[in-house]
Amino acid sequence: VMQCSASLDVLFLLDGSYSIGKGSFERSKHFAGKLCDAFNIHPDRVRVGMIQFSSTPHLEFPLDSYLTKQDLKERIKRVMFRGGSTETGRALKYVLHKGFPGGRNSSVPQVLIIISDGKSQDSTAMPAMQVKERHIMVFAVGIKFPRWEELYVLASEPAERHILFAGDANDAANGLYSTLTGSVCSTTAPGCKVESHPCERRTLETVKELAGNYVCWKGSKQPNAVQASLCPFYRWKKVLIKHPSRCFRTVCPDPCDSQPCQNGGTCVPEGLDKYHCLCLVGYGGDVHCAPKLSLECSVDLLFLMDSSAGVTLEGFLRYKAFLKRFLQAVMGQDSTTNVGVAQYSNDVRIPIQVGQHKDAFSLMKSIDGLNFSGGGTLTGRALQYIAEHGFRSSPVFADKQDNLPRVVVLLTDSKSQDSVAEVGENMRERDLFLIGVGSSFMRAELTKVTGNPKQTIVYSDPQDLFNRIPQLQRRICSVGSPEGCQAQSLDLVFAVDASAGVGLENFLRLRGFARSSSLHFSVNRDVTQLALVVYGSRAHTVFALDTHTSGAAVLQAISQGSFLGGSASAGGALLHVFGDVMTVRKGARPGVSKVVVVLTNGGGMEDAAAPAQQLRHNGVLVFVVAIGDARRDVLLRVAGSPDYLVHISSYEDLQHYQDLIIERICEEAKSPVNLCKPNPCMNQGVCILGPGSYQCQCHGWEGPHCESS
After folding, report:
1. In angstroms, rounded to a whole number, what is the distance separating the alpha carbons of residues 555 and 84?
2. Within this chain, do residues 646 and 684 fall inside the same structural domain, yes or no?
C-alpha cells in the first residue's frame, strides 16, 4: 500500500557465506522480495540490483535488468546460494570501486541495503565510512542471530532508523519505507504519520559459566609428591540476549475505524482509504449493508412460533432473532405487507395482530417483548385456532385490504403431540398459504402439515436457519404465482453423472430429477431450450439445445440417457458443454441466459474448477447439485458461490430441493446478459457489441456468425 515512488537506485548486498547457511539465505531472499513491496519499481522511478557476497562479491543482476516488480521478485527467487567466508569489507570496497551497476547518474539518490549476520571476517569500519561519505544511504538488516554492533557500524545515522530485523518482514518493510519517507521519498499519504515504538534486537552470545569443581592433583614443593585439590570446571553455552531498542513505522488511519458497515456487517479494509463490507444474509442493498431483500408482494403475513418446552428457551430466542432479522431485511418504509406474530404451546396467543404495526421499529419492539411459555407442543390445535381467528377482521384494521393473500409461517423444532394432517388440509380449504420452517429432522412432519415439500424449509444447524431468509422471502411471494420461468428465455443443460461411483440405481434417480424438472419449463424455440449430457470418464450429448422443440419430446428424450459406468470426470463434462453444447452451432442463442446444472455425487470434481470458471467467464452459470459426502470446498470451487451449490445428504431428499433449484435457475434467467458471452461468432470470429445488438468480425469466413467459408 505504501510505496516509495521517487527516482531511486537501490542495491541489495546479500550475505551468501557459510555462517548464514542455505536456510537463512532463502529467508534473506524472501525478505529482499518483501522489501521490494515498499518500492514503485519502474524505469523512471525505483531501480533495483543485487550483489551476493561471501569470499568474493558477485553481481547477480544490475539495476537496469528488471524494470517491473513481478520480474524483479521472480529473479530474486532464482538467486543461488554460493557459500564461502564472510568478507563484508571486501564487498563494500567492490561497491566503492564499481559503483551501482546499471544505475543512473549521481543526481539520483542511492540506497545500499546490506542483509547479513554481521559476522565479517575482515575489517568493515573504514570501507563503511567511505561508502557513507559518498552520500549513499546504508540500511543494515540483521538475519538469523546477528552481531548487532557490526551492523551499527555499517548503517547510516541515525542508526535506529537504518537498522532492520529480517525476522518480521512486514514490519521491516514498513520501517524502510518510514525512513525513506523522511528523506528521499515523497511525504506519507494524508493522515499517515511516522512513529517510534519499542522493539528488541536479539542475538546469541557464547558465555563462560562455572559448572562446578572436580578433584584434581597438584604438585608440591616436596620432591616426588603430589596433593589432591578441588579445581573449578567451566563450560561454554549459547545464551539468547535481548537488547531493547527503538524502531520506526508509518501508521495510517484504518478506513474501518468509523465502523461504516451496518446491520452486523464486517468491514474489510482495502488500502489506506477504501474498504468493503461483508454483509449478513438479507443485507447488502448498498455498500454499507443496508437491507437487500424486500417483499416484492403484498400479503397478510402471520408468524406462528413454537413456544413449547420442546424447542427450549434457547430455541425460542433463536426464533425471535430470526424473525427480527427477516423483518429488518424485507420490510422497507413503503412495505404493503401486514405482519402479525402468534405463539403456542398448550394454548395459542396472538400478541401481535396482523397489521397492528405499520413501521418496523414498533414491530421489533413488540417482538422483543414476547416471552417463552413452555408446556406441551399442540401444533395441530394451534393451526386450527389460527385458521379460525388469525386473520379475523376488526375495526382496528378497517383500512386493511381484504383481498390480500394470507400466509402463515410455522416456526417449530419439536414434534407435535396432536394430529396435524387434517388441520393443514383445513387451512388450505380456507385459502391460507402455509409454510413450514424447522430443522431437518422435522421435514416429514412439516411436509405433512403444508401438504407440499416445496412449502417446507429446513435448516441443518442453528446458524443455517438465518441463511434461509432469502428462501423464505421467495416462498412467501410465490403464493398464487405459477411455477417455472414462464416467459423468461433460457438455454438449460443438465449434466448428469453416470459413473460407477453413482451407480445405476442412483443414476436413474438423477435422470428422473432432470426429467421432472423439465416439466417446470416452457420448451420451445422462443422460451426454454434444454440439452442433456451424461458423463463418466467421457461426456456424451444425449440431445442438443436445438434438438427438441416441445416438452413432451424432451421428456421422452431424457429417458434415453444411458448409464455409462467407469470413473467420473466432471471437468471433462464441463469442457464438453463449453465446446460442444453451449455453442451457436449447436443451438445456443445469443442474448439468452445460459445455465448448466451438474447432478453428481461429488466424485471426479477435482478437475472441474477451471472449466467451470471458463464457463462463468463466458456468461454461463454453473449450478452444482451434489448428493452425499463430497468435500464442500471442492464443490464450492466448481459452483463459484454458495448461492449456486446445493449439497444434499441423500438421494431420497433430492425431490425436496427441486423447487429451490428451479427458483434459482429462474432468477438467473431474469439477469441481464452480454450478447457476446459466450462468443456467438464461429471460426475465431470476434464479437463486437453494439446498442442492443452485436456483429461478428470475421477473418477468412463469411456469414452473420462467420459460419461460411
Report:
1. 77
2. no
